[in-house]
Amino acid sequence: MINHKVLIIDYGVGNDQSIINALKFLGYDFIISNNKKDIVQAKVYILPGVGAFSEAMKNLNDLGITDLLKEQILQKKKPILGICLGFQVLADYSEENGTHQGLGFIKGGVIKFKAERGLRIPHVGWSEIKVVKPNPLFTKLGTRPAFYFDHSYHLVGEEADVSARCFYGADFTAAVQKDNIFGVQFHPEKSQNNGLKLFRSFFNYVGNI
Fold first, then answer.
1. Of 22, 89, 130, 209, which has the highest C-beta tally within 10 A?
2. Catalytic site residue 189?
3. Which domain holds residue 151?
4. Which has the higher per-residue pLDDT, 95 or 119?
5. Which of 136, 155, 143, 148 is nearest to 199 (CA)?
6. pTM for this model (two decimals)
7. Inside any domain, residue 139
8. Active-site choice (100, 151, 154, 187)
9. Is 100 marked active-site?
10. Active site includes 159?
11. Catalytic residue selected from 84, 100, 151, 166
12. pLDDT at 209 (0 to 100)
């Protein structure tokens, strides 16, 4: 990772400190920025996020970086890892508080869990996932690792993009992988050793491309 500059995209809705702590613990060099020059120079992106989809997209648009991110990620194929809300904004749209357009990196939409059969919303806490595609994110984790979740909405997308599922009332997408685009609905930065292993696997992948 010495030759790969990691950029945590700062857009006002991130859970940056927990991610900072995880990357520092693992010994990776990174910067936190929304500066266009930094975006162009970066080799890999982490898009964190907590809160509302509409606010996240408004902030990205107000910063004037959405087209630049599309160029760097879709055309130049730089890797990105979206986390929680940062994963959801990779989708085409969300139905949270109305319909809002996302970045469109991943086909599909973000919808709310159905409150039925006593299901508590939001889905908060540790849940086991079922890995569909082990490589590269889950190579160190086995087929059913547990991660920490905190969300009320989930992605409904294309089956081919799903890399892990989780059950909460019904199966939902816990992680996606589409070429250089990765997203996880859970919080690896709050998932102790499993989260650290996921980060390390992601950066090992980045270091080999």
1. 89
2. yes
3. 6-207
4. 95
5. 136
6. 0.95
7. yes
8. 187
9. no
10. no
11. 84
12. 61
